[in-house]
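Entry:
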Amino acid sequence: MPTDAGPSAPPQTADDRPSPGLRLRTSLAAAGMLPVLVALCIAFSIANGRFASLQNAIVILQQASVNLVLACGMTFVILTAGIDLSVGSILAAAAMAGLIVSLDPNLAMLAIPAALAVGAGLGLLNGAMIAGLHLPPFIVTLGGLTAIRGIARLMGEDRSVFNSDLPYAVVGNGHIFGIPWLVVIALGVVLASWFILRRTVFGLYVYAIGGNPEAARLAGIKVGLMLVIVYGISGLLAGLGGVMASARLYAANGQQLGLMYELDAVAAVILGGASLLGGAGSVWGTVVGALIIAVLTNGLILVGVSDVWQFITKGLIIIGAVTLDRFRSSR
């Protein structure tokens, strides 16, 4: 007995079906850089049997953890078509603040809040100058890279600060169920960032600003305030990175700690599929990008490549990441 099931879709003809080339491009776009990560793991496993061990996998995750935290903050910034070149310097300043406060027995428990406050405060300052003075993010954060590095050096009188009884040393050297706290914290930051960007109105606004700031402004979004908050988030996560890095070392140094970390963070985000033009990208893509950098660094060490060639390789990766971004944008 016939029933009224509503209008049915017209049958798909051969002309309507996507071509094999289009299907392939769609699949490659969805996979992103994950095949590259898998290929690197296979290649290094063949080159050195120790690479595929569980112990080395944990080492790789530990090595990626600080960069991943910074890269999550950088994801927020790049999605708004901005950039934050000061995160490495903010990390150093925050770490110095945490170490200095930890040396006072009466204030030791405020060491982590102090580091986070310094990171967030410097990030908010960046955002205020960008939004309030309408200055280019590249110029503001490039100036911050140098100025904040100088502040970090002044905080420790240009010397390393040590604390063998660091109250938050467990963050850098402790484990929970065999998993390092560094990895647990990085995973928590990833999940929180994904939730904010994909499940909240705030995240929707971030993508809208990156896609078209003028349209976002006309839609009622307070673009200036959003930018201040976004750079505040980047600074806060840089401060958390400072806590993680200093906890690992029981020390902080304003001159060396966090040096060039901003480039690794930017490379991770761009390798993960985000566009420097804003409005496109994801946290999970950033995770893949950060793991590619960590796997490459670890694998090159295991196969005996000198640190000089490691720097050259990283530089080529950054250039390749920007080239890939330009190609994706033109497509």
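Strands lie at 161-162, 175-176, 179-180, 251-252.
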